[in-house]
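Notes continue from the previous slide.

Worked example: a multi-chain complex. Inputs as given:
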Amino acid sequence: MNSFTPDRTSFEARLHKIGDERYHDKHPFHHLLHSGGCTPDQVRAWVINRYYYQSRIPMKDAAFLSRVTDPALRRSWRRRIEDHDGTEDGTGGIHRWLRLAEGVGLDPDYVSSARGVLPATRFAVDAYVRFVRDEPMLPAVASSLTELFAPKIHKDRIAGLLEHYEFANSDTISYFQHRLSEAPKDVAFGLEWVLDHAVTKADQDAAANALIFKTEVLWAQLDALYSAYVSPARIPPGAWQPGEGLLQ
Ligand SMILES: O=C(O)c1cc(C(=O)O)c2c(n1)C(=O)C(=O)c1cc(C(=O)O)[nH]c1-2
């Protein structure tokens, strides 16, 4: 019978180590994007596929909320949906992502139709929504903790896009600018909740494994993008072809 449960500090360090080793800031596609090495079509492919992730985040948060019995937890978590959906037309993260889409020359209606999304992106993102819907509460919350590592990548992205790409300006990058203040609030709450609720070794393992699963969801999306649009550029049947979905 396991009797030794590592303390909060070493458990938190274990979660951070997962990010240090596995977060998608290390993926070659991000290196290419942030250093100015992407062609306009590679940026467009990223915007189209990443939209699918964005669009499913509030759906997974709604699935999560539908299982929560504690009003205080619901009150805190529901802000995530408002961050993405906004509180009225023309506000929120999804709207801001579509401004980025227009900035790179894409028709926002095409992007929001999700027609050209890569199959592996769809599978990975849908797996995340199902995971949060179906797994116990602790792994469901822990899977959101990749956001611990997001502010750094958002800062790198803002700096890299502004330095290297003509389309980048305060309007087109406002999605990332907003996340710099939104994500730390989400993750401060989520981390506290996980540290409070992971009280046995088995709980801590389940939370750590959920975080690993989530890094894989993110990594798989970039692998799909790299293999379809970078090298050797094998676009799967049905996925976005350069030239499609452009602004008229
Ligand atoms: O640009 C990124 O690299 C990145 C990563 C992540 C993440 O780590 O899951 C999120 C976001 N951005 C993001 O913008 C966002 O709203 C978000 C929500 C969540 C989540 O799991 O609930 N992750 C992320």
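Summary box: The mean pLDDT is 96. Residues 57, 144, 146-147, 150, 153-154, 179, 218 surround pyrroloquinoline quinone (CB under 6 Å).
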